[in-house]
Write a structure and sequence with these properties.
13 helices, disordered N terminus, MetI-like fold, mainly alpha
Length: 338
């Protein structure tokens, strides 16, 4: 009697092509997921106010209504639509985060490049300035600066966050510039008569692209969280809707005591999701450009596939033994075997 054993499926074979293209595999993971999630919120920030025409500050008689078809995120204590506040607040929170992150990144690139390349007294002065902003706690400094602003609008908050968020990125860029300025291609550029501006921004800065991108993502996370914290404390314009402003009014009107969870949960979850998306993008960029992380990821996947192959082989051997033991003609079926 012939025994036919079907070959077990190897779960690791499906990803064999991905290991040959590690960059594609990583892009389809952390970086792709973070980019998609962040892009969704960006689209909501851009398109949302043009689609949702409900005034987020309009008062109605539907007070403290739970989420329903009429009010997707429920209403506040004064009948304001929480969904309209959320859509309108997404625009301000994302705008402040991206613009403040961009300004802080530009400042860090300028300070880091000039300090690392120039050296001498210029580097000393810029290093001292960076160290001063590094040792001062960021959030208390932002609170102090925001508290003395005559205008507490989104632009003022963006400037304050930008001023306090550039130092860490500048230190990293300076360190990389110090290691690059003595390379052979930089010395060749100097010998050929290229100016400092061209060497800084056309020869050195392209090699810092991934570091600058990671710095920008970190600055955006810092800006979104800081803006939400400032608004929650009431140090920004509370008449302008943002995720932090929603939390401020929810806390001021005792939404937690009233069990109006729909009032403060959506902005809190949105802040967490956007922060996680930016962190995933940052981790994905690190793995794409760091050979050690990329090699470790490939080795981990290969080990997982090898383990799966061993499990499948053992399972196939066990099935063969069971089928062979059940065949007629073995010792249990022979005359006199008893």
């Amino acid at each position: 009697m012939a025994v036919t054993i079907a070959p077990a499926m190897n779960a690791g074979d499906a990803s064999a092509d991905a290991d040959r293209r590690p960059g594609l595999s990583l892009r389809s993971g952390k970086l792709l997921t973070g980019t998609i999630v962040f892009a969704i919120f960006a689209i909501v920030a851009i398109v949302g106010p043009f689609v949702v025409h409900t005034d987020p500050s309009a008062l109605t008689s539907d007070t403290l209504q739970a989420p329903s078809g009429a009010h997707w995120f429920g209403t506040t204590q004064t009948g304001q639509d929480v969904f309209a506040q959320f859509i309108d607040g997404t625009r301000i929170s994302m705008l402040v985060g991206v613009v403040a992150g961009l300004i802080a990144t530009v400042l860090s690139v300028i300070v880091g490049l000039i300090g690392g390349y120039a050296g001498g007294i210029v580097d000393e002065v810029l290093s001292v300035l960076s160290n001063v902003f590094l040792v001062i706690p960021a959030l208390p400094l932002v609170i102090v600066l925001a508290g003395y602003l005559p205008n507490k609008g989104a632009l003022s908050v963006t400037i304050v966050i930008s001023i306090t968020g550039w130092a860490w990125g500048a230190r990293i860029i300076r360190a990389q510039t110090l290691s690059l300025r003595k390379r052979d291609f930089i010395e060749a550029a100097k010998a050929s008569g290229e100016g400092r501006f061209r060497i800084l921004f056309f020869d050195i800065m392209p090699h810092l692209g991934t570091i600058i991108a990671a710095s920008f993502l970190g600055n955006v996370i810092f800006a979104i969280l800081t803006q939400a914290g400032i608004a929650f404390l009431g140090l920004s314009d509370v008449s302008t809707w943002s995720w932090g402003t929603m939390l401020y009014w929810a806390q001021s009107n005792n939404a937690l005591l009233l069990n109006a969870w729909w009032w403060f949960v959506p902005p809190g979850i949105a802040i967490g999701i956007v922060g996680s998306a930016l962190a995933l993008m940052n981790f994905g960029i690190d793995e794409l450009v760091n050979p050690r992380l990329r090699t470790a990821g490939i080795a981990t996947r290969k080990s997982a596939r090898k383990l799966q192959r061993d499990i499948n082989r053992d399972a196939g051997a066990s099935a063969l033994q069971l089928d062979t033991a059940s065949l007629p003609g073995d010792n249990a079926g022979r005359p006199g075997s008893a």
